[in-house]
Every structure is written in structure tokens, then in C-alpha cells.
Amino acid sequence: MSRSERTSVFWVGLIILGLASVALFAILWFLFVFPSRYWYEPLKVMTPLIVGSLVFIVIGLYMMKSGTKKSLLSL
Length: 75
What we know:
Blueprint: E1 4-6, H1 8-33, H2 40-66, E2 68-70
Antiparallel strand pairs: 1-2
């Protein structure tokens, strides 16, 4: 079992991941709970927000992965 030190990059990545996940959930909730008469109208409006949320989720995951340092005392 190895221990790793979490740097500030890790914590910023965690915050970005959390905010992007909440935003994506809110967008999907809006799309499924308040459907329009025409199914394609909400998708035209929400597509950039969905793609942006997914990009920020990937950025957050990458920052979390790169923001950990292996300690010298790994057991």
C-alpha cells in the first residue's frame, strides 16, 4: 500500500471535477424533467454546455492524477 501526497493541483482538480459534475447533472436534469414540445430544441441550447462540462471533468481528472506525489516512505 503506497501513500501519496496531495498537492494544490490535486485539490483544484477535485474542485473543478466536482463543479463540472454538478453542472452536468443539472443540465441533464433540466433536459429530462422539463422536456420541450420539440425534442431537438433543448439539445441545440444545451449541447455546448454538455460538451464543456465533459471537458472540465476530463481536465479535473487529469489534474487530480498529476497532482499527487509519491512519498519516499511507501510501504
